[in-house]
Design the sequence.
């Protein structure tokens, strides 16, 4: 048999073997060309009788405890899912034949340690998920083989320590999740290898402070979450050089002072500062965030004051969420009425008893929530009652329940608001005030120098003056005529003091003018 015939026969034999392998799909699995799905099939080991040409192998939700000497059969894998199994170790070199693998899912296993060569051979891997395991330290560069890795998820472990070289060779990494671990200090030195990182999640750890230049090497960072820690201080230069940062979450920490000095972030668009211990929100707090679009400050138990013009330098704001702050009893209209791009205003769940009229603003937004506040539905709430008539889309409104009647505001009539008697009372009060002011003007006392009739240009001006009643002017005019001069004023003043007021001048109050 000639050489070409031998080669041809070998290829035919290989094809037959492959077809037979494809036909040997375990009954628990579901096999299609390039995909084998053996998930949730109560398997104790990786099946080795599947099509060796398979690209996608799904083995999640089984009871597999080891991958030793099993994956070498599948050298064409692109995706491997071993999530939610019972793996305690990956061994060393068990993935060395998976050079084409792009995605590896190992979340929700029992892995407590990663060996130096656990991931050897995975040079084309793009995504690795190790979340929900029992890892406690990253003390060696176990990921150094993954030169093209884009996403690394280490969330939900028990990691306390991250070595300086833990992320060595991960220069292409874009997303790193270290959330819900046990970190007490930021592993800033570990980040020096991650020049292209754009998303960093550190929420749910035990961090207590954000120190000087904590993220100095992460100049491409777009999103940073520090939520749900125990942070009580943020250095003024903590976020220095994060010129590309778009989203920052510092919610549910222990900050007592708004970190205004740290927020010189020219590109920041989203800021969540909820659940801290701020007592007030002032204009200077957000002055440096000129590109801010979404601001959230909710569930802050001590927040009681929001000053007017708080967003005067944030004219690009589209969403404002100031909600569920139990001490917040007043919200000034001037805080938001100058925001031309506002689309969402969420004031729900505060302690607002009344709200200023912002009808003109609400006519152009997409969602307005003031529900869950103890709003008193009297005439001051008439604009809210009348609001649906002025809005092009009433779906922007959340239901408003009145604290005094327990009824929805939309169920009340105008008479229920009591606006009629209120208007009548207001007109009556204004009329009484006008009459009182008019009468007071007619009987207003005059000021003259005590014991003399010196005029207003006298050098005595500025000394003590005696309060005289109105009959002085009338008696003087009768005696001197309308065109009286300074001498007549002086003489008549002396005469009046002697003849008419007796010792009153000594007892009357004196004023300095």
Sequence:
């Amino acid at each position: 048999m000639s050489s070409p015939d031998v080669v041809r026969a070998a290829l035919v034999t290989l094809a037959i073997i492959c077809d037979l392998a494809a036909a040997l799909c375990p009954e628990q699995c579901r096999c299609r060309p390039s995909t084998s799905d053996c998930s949730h099939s109560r398997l104790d080991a990786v099946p080795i009788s599947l099509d060796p040409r398979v690209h996608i192998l799904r083995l999640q939700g089984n009871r597999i405890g080891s991958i030793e000497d099993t994956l070498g059969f599948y050298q064409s894998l692109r995706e491997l899912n071993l999530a939610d199994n019972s793996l305690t170790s990956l061994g060393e070199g068990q993935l060395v034949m998976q050079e084409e693998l792009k995605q590896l899912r190992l979340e929700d296993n029992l892995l407590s340690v990663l060996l130096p060569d656990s991931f050897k051979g995975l040079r084309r891997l793009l995504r690795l998920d190790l979340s929900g395991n029992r890892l406690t330290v990253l003390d060696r560069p176990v990921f150094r083989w993954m030169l093209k890795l884009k996403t690394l998820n280490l969330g939900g472990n028990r990691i306390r320590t991250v070595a300086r070289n833990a992320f060595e060779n991960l220069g292409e990494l874009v997303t790193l999740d270290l959330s819900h671990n046990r970190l007490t200090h930021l592993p800033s030195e570990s980040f020096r290898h991650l020049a292209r990182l754009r998303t960093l999640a550190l929420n749910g750890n035990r961090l207590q402070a954000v120190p000087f230049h904590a993220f100095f090497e992460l100049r491409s960072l777009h999103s940073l979450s520090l939520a749900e820690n125990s942070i009580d201080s943020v250095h003024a230069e903590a976020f220095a050089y994060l010129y590309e940062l778009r989203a920052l979450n510092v919610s549910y920490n222990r900050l007592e002072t708004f970190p205004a000095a740290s927020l010189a972030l020219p590109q920041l668009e989203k800021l969540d500062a909820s659940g801290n211990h701020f007592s007030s929100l002032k204009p200077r707090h957000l002055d440096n965030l000129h590109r801010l679009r979404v601001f959230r400050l909710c569930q802050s138990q001590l927040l009681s004051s929001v000053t007017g013009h708080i967003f005067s330098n944030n004219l690009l704001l589209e969403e404002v969420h100031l909600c569920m702050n139990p001490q917040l009893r007043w919200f000034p209209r001037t805080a938001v009425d100058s925001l031309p791009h506002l689309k969402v205003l969420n004031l729900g769940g505060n302690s607002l008893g009344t709200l200023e009229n912002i009808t003109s603003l609400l006519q152009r937004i997409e969602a307005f929530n003031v529900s869950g506040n103890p709003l008193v539905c009297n005439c001051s709430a008439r604009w809210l009652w009348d609001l649906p008539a002025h809005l092009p889309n009433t779906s922007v409104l959340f239901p408003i329940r009145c604290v005094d009647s327990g009824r929805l505001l939309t169920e009340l009539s105008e008479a229920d608001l009591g606006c009629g008697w209120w208007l009548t009372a207001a007109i009556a009060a204004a009329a009484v005030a006008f009459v009182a002011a008019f009468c007071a003007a007619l009987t207003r006392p005059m000021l003259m120098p005590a014991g003399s009739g010196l005029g207003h240009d006298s050098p005595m001006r500025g000394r003590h003056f005696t309060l005289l009643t109105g009959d002085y002017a009338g008696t003087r005019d009768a005696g001197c005529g309308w065109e009286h001069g300074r001498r007549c004023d002086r003489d008549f003043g002396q005469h009046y003091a002697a003849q008419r007021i007796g010792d009153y001048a000594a007892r009357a109050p004196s004023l300095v003018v």
Summary: The first helix runs from residue 3 to 23. The mean pLDDT is 82.
